[in-house]
Design brief:
This protein is α/β, with parallel strands linked by helices. The chain has three domains: 34 residues; 199 residues, Rossmann fold (3-Layer(aba) Sandwich), CATH 3.40.50; 147 residues, Ribosomal Protein S5, domain 2, CATH 3.30.230.10. Helices cover 25% and strands 24% of the residues. The chain is built from ten helices and 20 strands. Strands 6-5-7-8-4-9-10-11-12 form a nine-stranded mixed beta sheet, with helices on both faces. It starts with a strand and ends in a 12-residue tail after the last helix. Pfam families: AAA_25 (PF13481), Zn_ribbon_LapB (PF18073). Belongs to the RecA family. RadA subfamily. It comes from Glaciihabitans arcticus.
Length: 451
């Protein structure tokens, strides 16, 4: 028999260590290690169970492929991210920063599902039923088949599920529910593991879809043990700047569909509204050409979106010029600046460079490299490109223009939106792309030296 031992476990991620340390070695959080006494256990042998005829393993070629049955939630953008709709028996985890609108979105999902004739149980472990009712009244989400309960005890929630017998369960949030069968406070690794595993087991046994809300830490990861993300079938992330009305739902994991889809929403005074065609959200309203701007076509999942990249170049007074980015990858901007200086002859090392996107969207794909480079070139020369021009392409360190993925889809979307000039990999080098970009404008061409 092994003796009882004391280990130290992180309350944020569940990482354990034999000795106490001030900083967790897994999540890098400070002062989160607490001592946990593990009881004496012996080595036990598990006897093999008898396999019945119906559970015997069969060759994979003899097993039929069962199609996944989706039922719509009533919100097309939410169904797009899920891969077509809600799957019976699916466990879905929705994470996001505080105040971004997770509860508002799920209340709208509950209302739409109830309007389609489904019985929905909305369990709020953070608000009272009167507070949820006030929000539902403001967002016009009152439905007779939408049931509310304010519970923080797991056993009581299971009792509510037995009594209501719903078609959909929403728990807001999993970090605020506690089980009497597990030690520790609500939100701890052991409690989150027990609550999530129990709800997921109920979901699978009853063929009941369950939507769980998950808190995030200050670095954007889901709070609690990483086992939570492995247990659920779908992991969604709700993101957006709280200073703007635009919101995005991204699929980080999906066992029933693609993981690169994104849904667009807008926060309004009446709640949250889906945006089925967000083509004009990420473009400026300027009718005349403005220097330092260039439009590109990005691909989010199966959706092509036009995004305007803006740049500003200012003479630096500091020994080290500033590089400020918003909505784009800072490392890719630094690479584009180096290629512009070395391969295109633009002396940018003594200028402050500011690069941003319009509308709050974040673009991290390499297909926007050419648009970033052209926007910086336009700002450096203070000459504007035509408003009917887009740039699509990846830039190599040698200054070559590589084609972006899904180039046909990007080109079709650009033509649909009225862009007549597309600068892409047909321009073999960055110098040629800059010349082509300025060739269509009424201003003089840039003086780009030849190498």
């Amino acid at each position: 028999m092994a003796r009882a031992s004391t280990t130290f476990r992180c309350t944020e991620c569940g990482w354990s260590n034999a000795k106490w340390v001030g900083q967790c070695g897994e999540c890098q959080q400070w002062n989160t290690m607490v001592d946990v006494t593990e009881g004496a256990t012996g080595i036990r042998k598990v006897a093999p169970a008898r396999i019945g005829a119906g559970r015997a393993a069969r060759p994979i070629t003899e097993i039929g492929a069962e199609s996944v049955a989706y039922w719509p939630s009533g919100i097309a953008e939410f169904d797009r991210v899920l891969g077509g709709g809600i799957v019976p028996g699916a466990a879905i985890l929705l994470s996001g920063e505080p105040g971004v609108g997770k509860s508002t979105l799920l209340l709208e999902v509950a209302s739409r599902a109830a309007a389609l004739g489904q019985r929905v149980l909305y369990v709020s472990a953070e608000e009272s039923v009167s507070q949820v009712r006030l929000r539902a009244q403001r967002t016009h989400a009152l439905q007779p088949t939408l049931f509310l309960a304010a519970e923080t005890d797991l056993a009581t929630i299971l009792g509510q599920i037995d009594q209501v017998d719903p078609h959909l369960v929403i728990v807001d949030s999993v970090q605020t529910v506690a089980s009497s069968l597990s030690d520790g406070l609500a939100g701890g690794p052991s409690q989150v593991r027990e609550v999530a595993s129990t709800l997921i087991r109920v979901s699978k046994d009853r063929n009941l879809p369950v939507l769980l809300v998950g808190h995030v830490t200050k670095d954007g990861t889901i709070a609690g043990p990483r086992l939570l993300e492995h247990l659920v079938d779908v992991v969604l992330h709700f993101e957006g700047d709280r200073q703007t009305a635009l919101r995005f739902v991204r699929a980080m994991k999906n066992r029933f569909g693609p993981t690169d889809e994104v849904g667009c929403f807008e926060m309004t005074g009446d709640g949250i509204a889906e945006i089925s065609d967000p083509s004009g959200l990420f473009l400026s309203r300027a009718r005349t050409p403005v220097s330092g701007t260039c439009v590109t076509i990005t691909v989010e999942g199966r959706r092509a979106l036009p995004v305007e990249v803006q740049a500003l170049i200012v003479k630096s007074q500091a020994p080290q010029p500033r590089r400020v980015v918003n909505g784009v990858d800072g490392s890719r901007v630094a690479m584009v600046l180096a290629v512009l200086e070395r391969r295109a002859g633009l002396p940018l090392s003594t200028f402050d460079v500011y690069v941003s996107t319009v509308g709050g969207i974040r673009v991290i794909e390499p297909g926007a490299d050419l648009a970033i480079a052209l926007a910086i070139s336009s700002a450096f020369k203070d000459k504007a490109f035509p408003v009917t021009q887009v740039a699509i392409g990846e830039i190599s360190l040698a200054g070559e223009i590589r084609p972006a993925s899904n180039s046909k889809q990007r080109t079709s979307e650009a033509q649909r939106l009225g862009f007549s000039t597309i600068i892409d990999a047909d321009a073999a080098h960055l110098r040629e792309a800059i010349r082509l970009a300025f060739a269509g404008s009424t201003v003089e061409r840039m003086d780009i030296p030849d190498f």
